[in-house]
Write a structure and sequence with these properties.
1101 residues, alpha+beta, nine-stranded antiparallel beta sheet, disordered C terminus, Calcium-transporting ATPase, cytoplasmic transduction domain A, single chain
Length: 1101
């Protein structure tokens, strides 16, 4: 029987062209296609951590270089390899272990968040009733009971109800609620019966697009085609009252949430990528030096002196021995130091009290991108939940020209701790009503003036009544009674705000059906029959309701100015209201024109008979008033956007919401600039889009003006394709601000990919929900907002912050510090090793390339580990050129791309070459002309090499002093500790190794020679003075904005940016010894770094 049943099911699947069958009845067993509903956001798991780390390291050419050197060390014929094996292989192993530990701890929080998310409870139907299970335990075919304000634990088909509202902002960014419906022939079936109903749901394999779903429900001979209207994704929140039953359709890795967030693109910072280029150049320098030494060695090998014990090598052995000898030209210790520095920098972000709220902190989850935070020039930001709270508030309105409302709230954008606490408390009050539900006690409006005018001015009473009747009758809200309280609920939160304020003003909506609406006007109840409704749609952007009160027919309408102004009867008061509407728009509010008109009964009957054309009847409206609704912005968003734009960063909004809403938020947030012409590009064919782009570009270029750009997702998708991308790039070059609306996750990803193709670009994507994950993964830096129900973006991002405003300090302060610090750490590490390699090369030139050690082998090994590592490490974590408050108040200081340029790399290498030449030849000449020791002996080869070694140590360590911008106890302590370690190490070597040590007794003899002290002091003084003079010359003669800001920071060192809880610059900074001319202290001149967009280059070259 079972085989027959299976064959029948297979035939049904084949007939219906579906691949899966789910049974509603719990008595039937549904085939499982995935094991668990557990969703992981981790980049690695326990088993893949090590192999993936190794594979990722092979993208770094330096890692390949070290593997190559390690292989050479194991070749028996290469003596240098055996001597160098420990100094190469041990740091390499340590580097891999350090990378493993770093990634493990960075992924640890994501693992904890995954466990928390998947351990949430859901109620499923069983044979014995309902049972709470963890989300991860849900199976395909389970019937789940979902309550109001509960999040969907997996992708489901709705079974038993219709017109169920879901919040999908976490999925598609839309602020409107989505109406979903169940299966028609399952309506009204009780819970106990549902468990046994013999209904089958046929679906296809899961697909990635959120709006793609099809299926069929079959019950006996009844069938119903299923579409996206019957399907709800994991992460959506039910906003309807009561409970519904849904069927688990796709779980775990097959949910659309997981399918859209699977990719973790490998991301490297600009420094890491450029390191590959520099490593190739240094490798060729190493090969060149090896070739020179091999060439010079050949005649010497044929005629070596009889008194030197020397093992002859062939050319290949000599060449590779020289390659091993100079392998430190690319120091492996550099990458160990960088890894540790990045870990400490990550700690700074994680523990910065300025970037934390009462309940959440900022977290860095990809320390490899720390320095990239200092190079951002494009920010792609989501709207809902990232920039806005998705909470509408009616701030003011005008009735017949008189404005009512509260004064505009003023905010400096970045609050104190007490303000933060108040805001958090207020937010809790709003969120307690869940989404678009708003109770009267939290309406932010003072109704006293409206009520006074209504009671004391009979003329105004009439127009006030008409105004609020429009708000309470022309609406699409649902009413929910909870005892004596009324709560309003709607797919449009601005309508909830209008109705709630109307109640405060004495006009209460208390009952509504499909045929009638009842309102209370100052406790006098009135009921109106609804004749016709024209709902609000994104295309219409207006709503109208025709009612009959028993005597006359009236139409009440409201809508945007663009759609309503041409339908309004020309009157003097109308012109005044239109001007007030424009003023409200400039202040950043979303406005609606409120209108009404009386309709003659005969005209209405004729209109019905002639086809009920809405455009014919929505004419000659009388304009009553204007409403100004604030889409509640997240705290500090506008101020933050302006700061970021002043820093030279382009901020673009990329959202799934509707055009008009997106444009309003664009103006409110400062992304779009008022006073500029806005170019609206709507979806069309590729050819038409190309023509519009060409026409717009030629027109705006001819007029020499900048513009705002507003574009929908479909147009964007065509614009970034090859045939249109050049024109699109030119348009973007003219744009001061861009808003991309109605974008799907795929279109967001394409925009991020398009920006990444720009030469020298560094894109940052920030969002808070699942629909932003693909954009966050594709951008060079991904930021997730960590406050909210959906943590998908925060879990998959490179960094998570609690609010958008914290982006200012993350980039302008931390990012700039990290970029400068890490660049200097890298170049300094090359510099100090290039001095050793170049000096050894010169030394061997005078020794016939006989590979005599310039520096004693153990000291050579300890050079990077003990003798030079600590000062540069302290620099990498503690040095700050400009205090945070100066960086915050002068954002243009962020625009600095010189730290890691090829020109800067060449400068450091030439500096190292000059230092090596100076150390070698000054030591050589001085030792040759006057080399008698106190005991009568002359300075021999070992004494000469010891002099070079000490000079290198002093020059390289004191080089730190010349690049430090703010001297702290940490810097001085690290230098003192390093010198003590060097002295202690040499004494231990002298005491323990005896005659096996190359510098045995030489060390003691040189310390007893005054001439030795004079020589190393002379070398150190000359080379250090060179750097100090150059530093003084740049600051005193050729100062730029950065130098002036450094001096201003010193003079006003007691100021802070917010409160620097974790950095404490005031306790660490000393006064500097240099001073600029007095006139340069008055203000900072940024003329050299102006951000005029008229002169900006296209984003793609």
């Amino acid at each position: 029987m079972e085989e027959i049943e299976l064959q029948q099911n297979d035939s049904i699947l084949e007939e219906l062209s579906y691949t899966r069958e789910l049974h509603v009845s719990i008595l039937a067993k549904t085939k499982q296609h995935t094991k668990t509903n557990f969703i992981s956001t981790k980049k690695y798991n326990f088993f893949s951590l090590f192999p993936k780390i190794i594979v990722e390291h092979f993208y770094r050419l330096t890692f390949v270089y070290f593997i190559f050197i390690s292989i050479l060390c194991f070749i028996p014929s290469l003596e240098r390899g055996r001597e160098t094996m420990t100094s190469v292989c041990a740091p390499l192993v340590f580097l891999i272990i350090l990378s493993l530990l770093r990634d493990f701890f960075e992924q640890l929080k994501q693992y904890k968040d995954d466990v928390f998310e998947n351990s949430k409870k859901a109620k499923i139907l069983t044979e014995n009733g309902t049972r709470l299970v963890e989300w991860q335990s849900i199976k395909e075919g389970n019937i789940i009971e979902i309550s109001e304000n509960e999040m969907m634990p997996c992708d489901c088909v709705i079974l038993d109800k219709t017109n169920v509202s879901f919040e999908t902002s976490q999925i598609n960014g839309e602020t409107f609620l989505k109406a979903k419906k169940g299966i028609s022939f399952l309506q009204g079936i009780k819970e106990d019966e549902m468990k046994r109903v013999e209904c089958s749901i046929f679906v296809n394999n899961p697909t990635i697009p959120f709006e793609d779903f099809s299926g069929k429900a079959v019950l006996n001979e009844q069938t119903q085609q299923l579409s996206i209207e019957n399907f709800v994704c994991r992460g959506c929140v039910m906003r309807s009252s009561g409970t519904i039953l849904v069927l688990a359709t796709y779980i775990g890795k097959e949910t659309k949430q997981k399918l859209n967030s699977n990719r973790h693109d490998l991301k490297w910072s600009y420094i890491i990528k450029m390191t590959n280029f520099y490593s190739i150049a240094l490798f060729f320098i190493n090969l060149l030096m090896a070739l020179v030494n091999t060439f010079l060695y050949k005649p010497y090998a044929n005629n070596q002196p009889w008194y030197i014990e020397f093992q002859r090598h062939n050319g290949a052995v000599k060449f590779f021995s020289e390659v091993i000898e100079s392998n430190n030209i690319i120091p492996i210790s550099l990458f160990v130091t960088m890894e540790i520095v990045r870990v400490v920098q990550t700690w700074y972000i994680n523990h910065d009290g300025d970037m934390a709220t009462l309940n959440d902190t900022s977290i860095a989850m990809n320390s490899c991108l720390n320095e990239e935070l200092g190079r951002v020039n494009y920010i792609l930001t989501d709207k809902t939940g990232t920039m806005t709270q998705n909470h509408m508030t009616l701030k003011k309105f005008s009735i017949s020209g008189k404005i009512y409302g509260n004064p505009d709230d003023e905010s400096d954008g970045l609050s104190s701790d007490m303000d933060e606490h108040k805001d958090a408390t207020k937010t809790e009050a709003l969120s307690s009503s869940e989404g678009n539900e708003i109770t009267p006690n939290i309406v932010e409006f003072d109704a006293k003036k409206v009520i006074d005018d209504y009671n004391n001015n009979m003329k105004r009473r009439i127009v006030i009544t008409e105004f609020f009747k429009t708000l309470t009758i022309c609406q699409s809200v649902d009413i929910r009674r909870e005892g004596e309280d009324l709560n309003y609920f709607s797919s449009r939160s601005d309508e909830v705000a209008l109705v709630a304020v109307s109640k405060e003003c004495g006009f209460e909506l208390f009952e509504k059906t499909a045929e009638s609406v009842s309102i209370s006007i100052f406790d006098e109840q009135k009921t109106y029959r609804i004749l016709k409704q024209f709902p609000f749609t994104p295309e219409r952007r207006r709503m109208s309701v025709i009612i009959y009160d028993g005597n006359e027919i009236t139409m009440y309408s409201k809508g945007s100015e663009e759609m309503m102004s041409e339908r309004v009867k020309e009157m003097a008061i109308s012109r005044k209201l239109i001007e007030q509407n424009d003023q409200f728009n400039k202040e950043g509010y979303r406005t609606l024109l409120i209108c009404s008109k009386k309709i003659d009964k005969e005209y209405y009957i004729n209109w019905l008979e002639n086809g009920e054309n809405e455009d014919d009847i929505e004419r000659d409206l009388i304009l009553i008033g204007v409403t100004a609704v604030e889409d509640k912005m997240q705290e500090g968003v506008r101020e933050s956007v302006l700061k970021l734009k002043e820093a030279g960063i382009k901020v673009w909004m990329v959202t799934g919401d509707h055009r008009e809403i997106s444009k309003d938020i664009g103006y409110s947030s400062g992304i779009l600039e008022r006073g500029l012409v806005t170019s609206n590009i709507v979806k069309r064919t590729k050819e038409e889009l190309n023509e519009q782009l060409k026409k717009d570009y030629e027109m705006w270029k001819r007029k020499k003006v900048n513009i705002n750009l507003v574009m929908d997702g479909e147009s964007l998708e065509s614009a970034v394709e090859e045939e249109n991308c050049k024109l699109f790039t030119k348009i973007l070059g003219l744009s001061r601000g861009c808003v991309f609306c109605r974008c799907t996750p795929k279109q967001k990803e394409k925009l991020a990919s398009f920006v990444n193709k720009s030469k020298g670009s560094c894109s940052l994507a920030i969002g808070d929900s699942l629909n932003d994950v693909s954009m966050i993964n594709k951008a060079k830096i991904g930021i997730g907002i960590s406050t909210g129900q959906d943590m998908s973006a925060a879990h998959t991002a490179d960094y998570s912050i609690p609010a958008f405003r914290f982006l200012v300090k993350l980039l302008l302060v931390h990012g700039r510090y990290f970029y400068r610090q890490n660049s200097v750490v890298y170049f300094y590490s090359l510099y100090k090793n290039f001095i050793v390699v170049a000096t050894s090369f010169l030394y061997n030139l005078f020794c016939k390339s006989s590979q005599i050690d310039t520096i004693e082998r153990s000291c050579y090994t300890s050079y990077n580990i003990l003798f030079t590592s600590i000062p540069i490490f302290i620099f990498g974590i503690a040095d700050r050129d400009i205090p945070p408050y100066v960086l915050y108040t002068n954002p243009k200081l962020y625009k600095n791309r010189e730290y890691y340029s090829p020109l800067n790399a060449l400068f450091w290498l030439l500096d190292g070459l000059v230092a090596s030449i100076g150390i070698f030849f000054i030591s050589y000449v001085a030792s040759y002309t006057n080399s008698v020791l106190p005991n009568g002996k002359v300075i021999d080869l070992n004494g000469f090499s010891f002099t070079i070694f000490v000079s290198i140590l002093l020059v390289t360590n004191l080089k730190i002093v010349t690049i430090i911008k703010r001297y702290t106890w940490f810097h001085f302590g690290s230098l003192l500790f390093t010198f003590l370690v060097i002295i202690l190490y040499l004494f231990i070597q002298q005491a323990i190794l005896y005659t096996d040590w190359m510098w045995y007794n030489i060390f003691v003899e040189m310390l007893q020679t005054p001439y030795f002290y004079l020589l190393v002091i002379l070398i150190t003084f000359l080379l250090t003075a060179k750097d100090l003079l150059w530093k003084h010359f740049k600051k005193s003669i050729l100062p730029d904005a950065k130098h002036i800001a450094e001096e201003v920071g010193v003079k006003e060192k007691n100021k802070t940016y917010n409160s620097i809880k974790s950095i404490k610059e005031r306790d660490m900074f000393f006064n500097t010894t240099w001073h600029l001319p007095k006139h340069q202290h008055n203000d900072l001149d940024y003329s050299d770094s102006s951000s005029s967009l008229d002169e900006e280059k296209p984003i793609i070259n």
